[in-house]
Each structure stands twice: as C-alpha cells, then as structure tokens.
Design a protein that fits this description.
By secondary structure, this protein is an alpha+beta fold. Helix content is 49%, strand content 15%.
Length: 752
C-alpha cells in the first residue's frame, strides 16, 4: 500500500520544542487519517533544528465507499418536512426512498452511497488545516503577508514542504495544496553550511539516504548516539571520563544536524570552584559537557563541545571561541563563589538571614523569615521522633534556606541546597547541619532519594509539612491538574521520607502543631447579652466562628475552654482533610510500586490511621494475605456477609450489634463459626498489639473454613430464618464476621 512522506522545512526550531512538535505532527496527521476512514500500518516522526518529518506507511490508496441510512419524516407527514428530507438526502422523489414499518407509524428511509475519495485528495484537504492549526507554544508571521491577521504562522519562517504519496515501485504523486505561497513538492535542502543545495526526493528511504549524503542526520536518537559515542571515545583517549548528562544530550542533539564532537579546556585555577558550579556554568552558557578524572572522581579542566559543522581548521576556531566564553563565565562564577564564602564567614546568622524579612513567601502566609521560624520550631519538635539531635536540628533549620540569598544560587537556582552545604562546611558547621541544607529539599522527583540522616529528615519533614498545612489553611489546595505550589510533590516527599527511613510518628499531631503559628483567636463580648463571639483567623481571613453563652462577669478564664474548643475543632477538620489528601498520595506511591491502591482505602477506613509507616506495613501484609486462597475466600465470604447485613439493616432500620446468643445456635456449624470468631479475634488482636501484621493475617485465615461452611448449601443454614430470634442471632453472627476482619482492614473497600 502507498506511503506518505511529509517534511516541513523552516528556520531554526528551538531544541526544547522539537520532540513535542514531532509527536504532535504524528498524532494530528494519523488522527485525521483514521477519522477519514484511512487506517494505516505505522507512522514515525522526526525532528532536526530545521525540519519536522513524518512518514506514514500502509495507507489505502482511496477511501472506502460509504453507505448511509437516514431516517426521514412519517409517511403522510407535512409537505415541508418531506421536501426538506428530499433536499438533505439528494433524492429526486419519495419513489427513491424506502418505507420502514413501525408500530408507532411508518417512516421514510433514504439509503445513500457516498463514493470514497482518492487518499491524495484527502491529504490535500487535511494537511493545510493541520499546518495552520499546529500547536506551537510560540508562533510568528513573516514577510509581506505578515501584515494580515490571516497570514500563516509557524514557530519560525516556513520555507518549503515536501509531500509525496505513492507505492514503493512507482513514482510518487505530489500532494498538491496551497499554503500562503509556501512551495509544496519534492524539494528539500541539506546542511545549512556543508551541503545547502536543493535535493529532489521521492519517498522516505530515498529521503533519508540523500539527507545523510547532504550532512543531515534525520533521527534525533541517532544524533544522540553519535554525540555520546564520540564524546566517550575522545575523553577515554586522553585518560578521562565523560560526565554524562541525558537532559543536556537531548538538548544538544536538537541543536545540530551533523554532530561533530570536539574537546576544549580552561584554566586549572577554576578547579577551586565546586564541581557542581563549574558544571552548571559550562552547561548553562555553552551547552557543553564536563569531564572528570576517573581515578579521583573530580572534574578536570576539559570540556566537550558539540559543533554543527566539519570545520576546515579541524575545529580550532570553534574550540577557541567556546574557551573564551567559558573563561569569562567561570570568572564570574569564581567571583560569586568567593563573595558568598566571605559573607558566610564574616556575618552572623542574623545578618545572613536578615534579607528574608523583606521577602514575602506568600501574602497570606507571611515572609520567608517567618516561615524559617516556623520550620525551626516544627523541626525541633519532630527531632526526637526521628532520632535527631534537637540542637543540631535547630541550627540546620535556621541555615537550610540561607543559600537562597547567595550569588551562586541567584545565578544557578538548580544548585540551591547544595551550595548551602558547601558554605556551611566552609564556615565550620557540623556535617549533619551542613548536609541538611541540601537534603531537606529531597526527594524532588520519583527517581530522587529521600534524606537519610535524622537531622535532614526532621528539617525536610518540617519544611514540607509547614508548606502543606499553610496552603491548606488558606484553602490553596491542588485542583485537577493544577498544583502551582507543588503540594502533591511535597506530600509524596513526606511519605517517602517517613517510609524510607522507617519513621514512626502521628501525622495528626504534627499537623495540629504546625497550624498553631498561622492561627489567631479573638473573642468579642456581645453588648447587653451573656454571649461571646469566638473567631479564628488564618492569613487575615475568618475561617470559623462560634457564639457561646457565658454568665457575667465574663472573664478570660471562662472564655478559655471555649477558645480551646474552637481551635480543637479547626485542627481536627484541617487534619482530617489533609490526611485524606495523604491517603490519595499514598495510593499513587504504592500504585507506582505495583501495589494495590484499594488496600490503602481499606486500611484508612478503619479510622485513626495516621502513622504512615504502620499503614504501609498493614497494606503490604494485607496484599500478601489476599494473594493466598484463604485470603481470597475469606474476602468473598466477608463481602457476602456484609452485603446481607447492609440489606437487612436497611430493611429493619437498625444494626445487629452485640454478641450472638449461643443457646439460639441449633446448628453445629454456626456454633463452630462463633467459637472460631472469638478465638481468631483474640489471637489477631494480640498480634496487632505487637504490630505483627503478618501473624494477624495468619490468625484471620483460620476464619476461612468456618465462614465457607456457614454459607455452604449443605449446611442448611437460612440466615433470614422464619424464627425472628434465630434470624437476629444469625445476623449478629454475620456482624461478628465483619467486625473480626475490621480488626485489620475494612474488607468492603477491597476490590474483588
């Protein structure tokens, strides 16, 4: 079947836009083909700095004929309706229509056949629309036509279009369409400098080979392979090792069509700067890779350039130009670093942090200085819970954000935390205090590690929980896909820090403590009444108020209990809301690890579950239990019991709580079930008290056979017995099954 070759040739396409643009082109063209009834075999898109290319193979040569059936008016209906029907369907008269018999009345039916179009004609219709509506994040108009608002827009001026369609053994057909004067045909161009002449192409294989001959590597993955292989070889030949950088490699591959790898150098004096600063400077300014000594792991004074040309001088001028720019940028970085060191060594902590008094963290949550005070207070409170030294934790919390004010971080924000660690060590701070400056930001993504040192854990938890509680308090929660303050990431960071470090703490207690600095409680005595209005404010807004009657004289001592009650109510509501958010984040975390997220719901449904480590352990044990036959069958039996109870409780408008009466158990099977439940619950509770969840699940497994026997047809047991007392007793027995399993989880929340 025929193939499509499409190339959109333009000026420079920004590297950061290329991958998405190639995917957008593939998606938009193939979606429209399918919508037009043209199912294809495969498609692939490519991008270089000057072109977007798409190949779609296995497209039918034409659309299939389309038969349509259209229902018309009733037989004998209004003349206007009949004439409208004939006009819409193209029928000459009602003699060409069929009649559909229907009990409610007969209707006219028009059967029409729409012949399919040649695919090349369909392409000529859809391609101009796709190009005009292409979703570039930024677009421009150019040339004389740019004065008109209807002018063609593109990321950069669009020069030519290749659009051919045909089978491999024949000369392809050019897809003809008009697009604001841009030529459409079989002509493309090679490398801007090395082979700029026009090239005539026929189909994709021919196109790729001719571009290769014209010094253009079409596939970005192939360009990346060339850059990486040549860079590794060049550094290895000189006894060095390339510092690989996948993100930079993606970007550099988008800057060149014919990659040529070269090596440059800089003065060894600059190696006094931390390696990360050198790397950030060279990476940000010249898109170059750094090189290290494999023996020491430290950077050398070499760097790797990726040029887009085979220079006649072997790259000497290119290297010299890059070295000149890098020398200037490293000089700036060295000045920034030395200035920061001087400031840290010569100033007190108060002097270092005083600028934070003028920097607003959020208009409703105060300044950065106020936030640092909150983090310090909360970190000290968390410290003993995670085994951290409170004195070191307090100092670490004071300094954790200090490097945000430094020159280096101002130039390279990605080095925040790391520079704080370097400056703190240079000042003689304890290693744990210094490490917290870097580690309290962690984890910053799915692949990032969580902090491991207790001081870092305490500061990291305080930082993230302060953020979460603060934004929850002012009702700035994530909505849908919008999360401008990265609160989902903060919650996942708390979860990772707690679970990875095996930390035991009550989130509700921490939330309650964290909210106190945000809260302002006031009370107003109502004139001529024995009433006091108690209001709670957060971020300047009233969030809860209550009127209470107090006998005069009204004193602070009489009001105090009610003030505490209002505060407790607010803390409880906020904590419950935030805990629900954490449950959702925990489900995401466990799902990413391959665990069942419905088990999180089952454990949280027990209530009072705010120890994340214990929740995860419960979920893990429950997951293993439900993989066994005992677990699967007990789940089925428990759900059956629960479903019966729900129906009968609704019918009787009551619950069936309380111990069943053994004297009403005429059947030995129900007697056995009751005895098994009692022993199982006692045994399971014993293991739960020791937080041995696996053993608790093993205890529950003994219920399986007794429950199966109870529900078996052979038992002869009828739950809704004709004797009301027996019926109630058996429903109580079912309630005991449900209650027994609720010792570990709410089985009704578990999916079958």
């Amino acid at each position: 079947m025929p193939d499509l070759l499409l190339e959109l040739f333009s000026e420079e396409i920004p590297a950061r836009m290329q991958a998405k643009a190639a995917e957008d082109l593939r998606r938009m063209v193939t979606d429209r083909l399918v919508a037009e009834g043209l199912v294809y075999e495969g498609a692939k898109a490519f991008a270089t700095p000057r072109r977007l290319t798409l190949t779609v193979h296995g497209i039918p040569a034409r659309q299939s004929d389309l038969k349509q059936e259209r229902k018309g008016p009733r037989v004998g209906g209004a003349e206007a309706a009949i004439q409208g029907f004939l006009k819409a369907t193209g029928l000459a008269s009602l003699d060409e229509a069929k009649i559909q018999r229907d009990p409610k009345g007969d209707f006219y039916i028009a059967l029409t056949e729409k012949p399919g179009k040649p695919t090349v004609d369909v392409l000529a219709e859809i391609l101009p629309i796709i190009i005009r509506t292409f979703p570039w994040p930024k677009q421009m108009r150019w040339g004389a036509a740019s004065a008109k608002s209807s002018a063609l827009t593109w990321v950069r001026p669009l020069h030519s279009i290749v659009a051919t369609f045909g089978i491999e053994t024949e000369e392809p057909e050019v897809v003809q369409f008009d697009l604001s004067g841009v030529s459409v045909g079989q002509t493309t161009y090679g490398h801007r400098f090395l082979a700029p002449d026009a090239i005539q192409v026929r189909r994709f294989d021919d196109y790729v080979s001719k571009l290769q001959a014209a010094k253009v590597v079409l596939d970005p993955e192939r360009r990346k392979e060339i850059i990486l292989a040549d860079a590794r070889q060049l550094t290895f030949a000189q006894g060095y090792e390339l510092v690989e950088d996948p993100a930079l490699l993606d970007e550099v591959a988008g800057l060149v069509e014919w990659p040529v790898v070269l090596m440059g150098s800089f003065d060894k004096d600059f190696l006094s700067i931390p390696d990360e600063v050198i790397r950030a400077t060279i990476r940000a300014n010249q898109k170059c890779f750094v090189v290290r000594d494999p023996k020491t792991g430290k950077l050398t004074n070499k760097f790797i350039i990726t040029a887009n040309i085979e220079a006649s001088d072997g790259g000497t001028a290119i290297i010299a130009g890059n070295e000149r720019v890098i020398r200037a940028r490293l000089s700036d970085a060295k000045f920034f670093y030395e200035t920061d060191l001087k400031n840290w060594k010569s100033k007190s902590t108060d002097e270092l942090l005083q600028k934070f008094d003028q920097i607003v963290f959020h208009e409703k949550l105060g300044t950065q200085a106020e936030r640092i005070k909150r983090i310090e207070r909360l970190a000290v409170e968390i410290a003993p819970l995670v085994g951290a030294d409170p004195v070191k934790t307090k100092r670490a919390a004071q300094l954790a954000k200090a490097d945000l004010l430094t020159e280096v971080v101002g130039e390279f924000p990605e080095l925040q935390g790391l520079m704080g660690k370097y400056y703190a060590l240079a000042q003689g701070e304890d290693a744990a205090v210094a490490a917290a400056s870097e580690d309290h930001w962690k984890p910053q993504g799915q692949g990032d590690s969580a902090p491991t040192d207790p001081v870092s854990i305490a500061v990291a938890l305080a930082d993230k929980i302060d953020t979460l509680v603060g934004f929850w308090a002012i009702d700035e929660k994530p909505t849908g896909s919008k999360d401008p303050f990265a609160l989902r990431r903060a919650a996942l960071g708390v979860i990772r820090s707690i679970v990875d470090a095996q930390v035991r703490l009550s989130l509700v207690d921490i939330f309650s403590s964290a909210i106190e600095p945000f809260v302002r409680l006031v009370h107003v005595i109502e004139p001529s009444q024995n009433q006091v209005r108690i209001a709670l404010y957060v971020g300047g807004a009233e969030v809860i108020a209550r009127y209470v009657a107090i006998t005069r004289p009204i004193t602070e001592e009489k009001v105090a209990p009610y003030r505490q009650e209002v505060l407790a109510t607010y803390k409880r509501n906020l904590s419950e809301n935030l805990l629900t958010f954490f449950a959702d984040r925990l489900k995401v975390q466990l799902r990413d690890q391959g665990a069942r997220h419905d088990l999180v719901d089952a454990v949280f449904a027990l209530g009072g579950q705010d120890d994340l480590l214990m929740i995860v352990r419960r979920v893990e044990a429950l997951g293993k239990f439900l993989e066994t036959d005992d677990g699967k069958n007990l789940l089925a039996g428990t759900k059956r019991a629960s479903n019966i109870l729900v129906i009968e409780e609704k019918k009787d408008k009551r619950t069936f709580e309380g111990n069943p009466d053994p004297s009403l158990m005429a059947n030995v099977i129900e007697q056995h079930l009751w005895n098994t439940i009692q022993s199982t619950v006692a045994d399971a509770n014993f293991h739960l008290g020791r937080e041995d969840f696996e053993s608790a699940m093993e205890s529950l497994s003994t219920l399986r056979s007794a429950v199966d026997s109870f529900f078996a047809k052979e038992s002869g047991i009828k739950v809704n017995d004709d004797d009301a007392a027996v019926r109630e007793n058996r429903l109580k027995l079912l309630n005991e099954i449900r209650a027994a399993t609720r010792a570990v989880a709410d089985f009704s929340k578990i999916q079958d």
